[in-house]
Amino acid sequence: MEEKTYLEEVDRNIYDFKNKDDYDYKIKKGLTKEIVEEISRQKNDPDWMREIRLKALDIYNSLELPTWGPDLSVLDMDEIATYVRPKSKLNSSWEDVPEDIKDTFEKLGIPEAEKKSLAGVGAQYDSEVVYHSMKEDLIKQGVIYTDMETAVREYPDIVKEHFMKCVPVNDHKFVALHAAVWSGGSFVYVPKGVKLDFPLQSYFRLNSPESGQFEHTLIIVEEGASLHFIEGCSAPKYNKVNLHAGCVELYVKDNAYLRYSTIENWSKNMLNLNTKKAIIGKNAQVDWVSGSFGSKISMLYPMSILNGENAKTEYTGISFAGGGQNLDTGFKVIHNAPNTSSVINSKSISKNGGKCTYRSLVRIAENAKNSKSTVSCESLMLDDISVSDTIPVNDIRTDDVEFSHEATIGKLSDKAIFYLMSRGLTEEDAKAMIVRGFAYPISKELPIEYAVEMNNLINLELKGAIG
Fold first, then answer.
1. 291: in domain
2. Burial class, 289, CB count within 10 angstroms (exposed 0-12 / middle 13-18 / buried 19+)
3. Is the pLDDT of residue 367 over 90?
4. How far is CA 462 from CA 325, 355, 437, in A?
5. Tens-place pLDDT, residues 300-336
6. CA distances from residue 304 to 96, 315, 333, 343 in whole angstroms, order as listed
7. H/E element holding 139?
8. N or C: which end of the chain has fewer CB within 10 A?
């Protein structure tokens, strides 16, 4: 029997190239009060932000590691550098970005995407945003799209009002860590009634080994406004653990709309412990589209809080776990008002002994009469050694609701493969077609460049599973 080609042997194409770890400043490893104060000093924080950081460090030290999910004992904060400043300042001209960093983002297709279909782009390299650009007409309409450090300096009142309010610092241990050492990220403010025709995109690239990336994304969509925001993430593979503990806070006011799309393609040495939440007003809607590829361990559960009557949210997500990966992902929604609705559509693919877990919470409060929630969770295992679990929590506190939960777990159908092979496909192509068909409801929700990227990632991963 022909031996399988395992994932570790597969060329991850454009993602695994790495630049020399050549930085302007890298803080010493570990997490102490002195290190947090030094980060604050390096970033010229105002006093109020420095106080948030130090208070968050105390909370971090008081909280235990979560024990209900994947084993996180591999993480040693004494071996992680929490701040790495690249040899680049923030540039608004692409030509001014240093050559090696520019080359990285050109390989990832960022400038090309900007030319074609984006209203604005931000690019973060390690701990700092190195490039930012936005179309002139959006600036004239009052749209703000900048890095978080600039927002802290130039829009302190807006940041103070919203920073770590949607996601409280004591939410869990890694939120507290994030608040203590955060760096970089995006700030978006869309004024009342302004509708963006093209997406904004931020891309986060972690290059430095044994380091962490802790970007903070804060988006405020005012009443009647609309926005599509795209987030992309990747990192090369190292033999040492890297950590990603970003935070996303979304405020979507009455009658507003936000679509938040993410493709996370971290390398297999990354712990991805990200936190994302949205607070949604009356007649407003937030749609999440999420693709989780890569990373050694992921714990990621975006959350929608439906505070306004008729508020809506949809979650469409896929995760793909290969050998040595444990992807624990899902979605949380809180129905806090009448006539609210949520639709959750999650898919996972596991192979070569990879583990996918879908973990969810649907809470419908007593006052959320006439609300609706539909949960669909589908898992596909490509072999006999992979693992897939579904762990839903449904907390329904009123009878006046429509609620359904459906979960299916299955393997590739031998009959379907045989049929496709009888029509002239190779076994590899037949399996790939079935998997892409399984993933199609997710990829069709993504912008075209990201749908292509996701299909390429699936093809790339499948080369390691079939042979």
1. yes
2. buried
3. yes
4. 15, 16, 14
5. 999 999 999 999 999 999 999 989 999 999 999 999 9
6. 39, 9, 5, 11
7. helix 136-140
8. N
Whether residues 295 and 424 fall in one domain: no
What is the rounded average pLDDT of the residues 278-296?
93
Residues 143 and 264 in one domain: yes
Integer angstrom CA distances of residue 44 from 57, 128, 153, 157, 371: 18, 14, 9, 17, 47
Among 276, 300, 324, where does a domain finish?
300
E strand intervals along 126-241: 128-134, 144-147, 186-190, 200-205, 212-213, 216-221, 226-234
Specify whether 126 is located in the same domain as 253: yes
Query: For residue 78, with 0-12 CB atoms within 10 Å meaning exposed, 13-18 middle and 19 or more buried, which class applies?
Result: exposed
Which residue type occupies 349?
A: I
What is the Cα–Cα distance from 174 to 296, expressed in whole angstroms? 17
Q: Which of 327, 323, 334, 268 is nearest to 300 (CA)?
A: 327
Say if CB 325 and CB 355 are below 8 A apart: yes
One-letter amino acid identity for 336? N
Q: 210 lies in which domain range?
A: 12-300
Is residue 71 included in any domain, yes or no?
Answer: yes
Q: Is residue 456 part of a domain?
A: yes
Q: How many Å apart are CA 95 and CA 114, to the nearest integer?
A: 14
- Total structural domains in the chain? 2
Given 257, 272, 300, the domain boundary residue is: 300
Backbone angles phi, psi at 9, to 5 degrees: -90, -10
Residue-wise pLDDT for 155-186, tens only, equals 999 999 999 999 999 999 999 999 999 998 89
What's 437's DSSP letter? H
- The owner of tokens 């306004």 is 308
293 and 426 housed in the same domain: no
Residues 291 and 417 in one domain: no
